[in-house]
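seq as requested:
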Amino acid sequence: MLKTKRIKQIQEYVFEHQTASLDELVNVFDVSKNTIRRDVQELVERGELKKVYGGVAVNHTTLEPFNDRITRHQQEKTLIAKAAASYVEDGDIIFIDSGTTTLEMIEFLKNKQLTIITNNFDFMIDSFPFPGLNVISTGGMLERKTKSFASFKNIELLKSYNINKAFMAATGISIANGVTNSSPLESEIKQVVVEKSAEVFLLVDRHKFDKYALMTYCSLDQIHYLVTDTMPDKTYQEYVREHDIQLIIADQE
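struct tokens:
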């Protein structure tokens, strides 16, 4: 296999699994450990990966472009979005977070009568044909990689909104680090929304459990509903039970 092709496949493998040991990469790609070390070092120097004990992990300080994220695990995202949208009722005032999973909710909300506050650029555009959706933008600076608006100046305005239900996204979640995000600009908006919302729904697929990114925007016990595609392990099952969090597993179609 050509070196460039192998390095690309290593990058895709680590992005899929979030972390990988050097021994694991040796077995998967059937090359020597020295070869893996050289390939990994190249990805580390590019800023794509970071070294961790015994291996490498995704470098979450480098934001992954929105268009790359949206194609990953598409079916799971759609099912999660559908399950979350089933909790939205006509007349609700909701917040739709930036993210590829929350974007999928538009298909299941388009015929409702709602007020929607959002920093999700694509959601604003996609909602335009549906007159029942009254959309309020958070405004601010456009973060091109995440296709979201972020601004510290509009936090006070956001605090004045009364939000029934917030539908939040995350780069990774864990019991120790809580709900995490890669963009510092977005994190304060997310924090305010969680604090202001009567009910908080967290939409994450199974690949985001036990992962974490640069910033924690809320602890896991601040969430009221955890919406995912597969039953998490017993540690999470016990945690949601102890903290009165409703676990919603999206129906597989």
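Residues 3-58 form a domain with the Arc Repressor Mutant, subunit A fold (CATH 1.10.10).
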